Automatic annotation (TrEMBL):
<feature type="domain" description="AB hydrolase-1">
    <location>
        <begin position="55"/>
        <end position="137"/>
    </location>
</feature>
<dbReference type="InterPro" id="IPR000073">
    <property type="entry name" value="AB_hydrolase_1"/>
</dbReference>
<protein>
    <recommendedName>
        <fullName>AB hydrolase-1 domain-containing protein</fullName>
    </recommendedName>
</protein>
<dbReference type="Pfam" id="PF00561">
    <property type="entry name" value="Abhydrolase_1"/>
</dbReference>
<dbReference type="InterPro" id="IPR029058">
    <property type="entry name" value="AB_hydrolase_fold"/>
</dbReference>
Length: 224
């Protein structure tokens, strides 16, 4: 069930609420889903979507799949439209302002679920943004789906989130090179956990169950 509530309220157990939250560049359009147990939630997840200039939005099916995995793990899941997408105000900012949006919403949700552990998630461009945000947000877990490291980071190797980290990538990705991703991951110490989906493309058509099959066990086994 989806309903519209005030940004000062929280959705009831198992429900999803549409929100417009005042953020750094104006209103941010948010979909917030509560876990089945809101009295003792396992934590919170903030999920970042693909590139805004290439049609990316929080309605993306991979983003929705990540939100579903977070809900199944007992987390509040928050997906949102970056500035300039949907009803979110502002203009695309090549990852800088989008990182600010992410950090703002992490703080917003942490204030409403005090002491909750954070999972940062992102797909494609959102994977880049969420890794950038991790340096300040300090998540408990990180999940990156087909992150385009070589396209957006100036450094040869991006900063590693200081937490358990899962990367999911398909070998047939024609947008973000799987081989480039493996090369970058091998430069980390320790390297993140890599879930390789053989012959899967960038958008994981027909393979979303396998994405969830990698993400949900990762959340569950690391939630100690």
């Amino acid at each position: 069930m989806t309903n519209q509530i005030s940004p000062t309220e929280m959705p009831r157990a198992g429900e999803t609420s549409e929100l417009l939250i005042p953020g750094p560049a104006g209103l941010i359009e948010v979909m917030l889903t509560a876990p089945g147990d809101v009295a003792t939630p396992a934590g919170i997840a903030v999920i970042c979507h693909p590139h805004p200039l290439m049609g990316g939005a929080m309605s993306n099916k991979v983003v929705y799949s990540l939100a579903s995995s977070a809900s199944k793990a007992g987390l509040y899941s928050l997906r949102f439209n970056f500035r300039g997408v949907g009803r979110s105000e502002g203009l695309h900012d090549e990852g800088r302002g989008e990182t600010d949006d992410t950090l703002f919403l992490v703080d917003w949700l942490r204030q409403r679920v005090p002491g909750a552990r954070l999972v940062l998630m992102g797909f494609s461009f959102g994977g880049f943004v969420s890794v950038k945000a991790a340096q300040q947000a300090k998540p408990y877990l990180q999940v990156s789906i087909a992150p385009p490291f070589s396209k957006y980071f100036n450094e040869p190797v991006p900063p590693r989130p200081d937490c358990p980290w899962l990367v999911v990538h398909g070998t047939a990705d024609d947008v973000v090179s799987y081989d480039d991703t493996v090369q970058v991951l091998n430069g980390f110490d320790p390297p993140p956990e890599l879930a390789t989906l053989k012959d899967a493309g960038h958008f994981f058509h027909g393979r979303l169950a396998e994405v969830q099959g990698a993400v949900l066990p990762f959340l569950q086994k690391n939630w100690v």
